[in-house]
Amino acid sequence: MRRHWSYHGRKLILAALLLLVIGLLIGAPGWMLAMGLLGYLFWTLHQAYQLQQWLANPHQLDHPPESIGLWGELFDGVYRLQQRHQQSQDRLQALVDRVQESTNSLQDAIIMTDAQGHMEWWNLAAERLLGFQRRSDQGQPIFGLIRSPAFKSYFTRKQYQEPLELSSPFRVHMRLQFQISLFGEGDRLVVARDVTRLHQLEQMRRDFVSNVSHELKTPLTVIRGYLETLETYQNELPPRWQRPLHSMAQQTHRMDALITDLILLSRIETSAHTQKEQAIPLAALLAQICDDARQLSGVKAHQISLDCKVTDGLQGDLAQLQSAFSNLIFNAVKYTPEKGRIQVIWRTDRQGGHLSVVDNGTGIDPIHIPRLTERFYRVDDSRKSDTGGTGLGLAIVKHALRNHEATLEIVSKLGQGSQFTCHFPSARLISLVENAQ
Ligand code: ADP
Q: Ligand 1 within 6 A of 188 CB?
């Protein structure tokens, strides 16, 4: 470039010298130089005008103005620069088109929003599953289109480990599963998947279990009734009938417990949100469960202690929470050797309320912990020792807590004991003194 500048500079000086010589020959060097300078100025202005016209008209960008010298090189340079820019823009556009095309071929809806939830971009599936409209919905808050308090609280909570399942705002019979990821400065990528079929199958499974359990309950009650009557005449029966009778009564009792738990679980599962909510006095509820646990403990004489302020209360479904807390406390009794220590502790802090059931019993191997709340999942040893459990207790706890936006945390060490903690959100806490006023 510098070489060009010196070349053009030399040419300019030569032209000026030539004009000076001609001026000297005709006796007017000053005029001659002034004329040359004026001509050069006009030519430069004309080239600048051409450049401005060329750049101002995007349709002509492919054809740079013809020129010579410094201006010619300038036009060529700008033209090459503009060509490179155009090529990289074309490459970028091709990439954007490809991404757009591939996301449009997805079955799942993808929506990109800013930190406040304003919709910036979405794919075709979002229009199909959620009914978004390309022109009118651009920049709209996503909560205005997916009008569900559950979605709004899920979106703003910023904790997206678990997906959220909802009916589509567009087609009521369609079930959608939402999963959100954070990116940039609080921006969100919302993915919605059509899980209608899965939901229907799940519903069929629940209905089947619930119906079978209800159907089995009546004949079982009749059999139990007859067995209990027979047991009262035990002494009149031949001795060889006594053992089978006792065994039959025991197994019927187990089956009855299992069916009761199955019916309870399917009832808790189907009421996605608690229906009969009330202010629950925690101290009274836990004291009553601890009394029942002492009865269950019997001769094993566990030391059961309760730490809960009488003013602490929880908004929720009494039947569901009673069954969740009973399962945890009765499990502690079942899996803690005699004279073991069981503590029931209720604490509140800024995050919410926390109910811990701590025992110094058998403990659980960490490999079992992630699967413990699955239906019928039991640690092998407990099966052998036959604690009389149904294998549904912790599944009931999990679903009852889920209905209260609460979670279950399990910490345990084999041979040392376990701690089961239910974490409730602060929105569920109430003070019974304030409530009474
Ligand atoms: P179960 O009816 O068998 O007690 P649960 O669902 O209540 O079924 O519990 C699942 C398994 O978790 C139990 O079989 C047991 O092995 C283990 N478990 C639950 N609570 C405790 C505890 N407090 N200490 C040790 N193991 C426990």
A: no
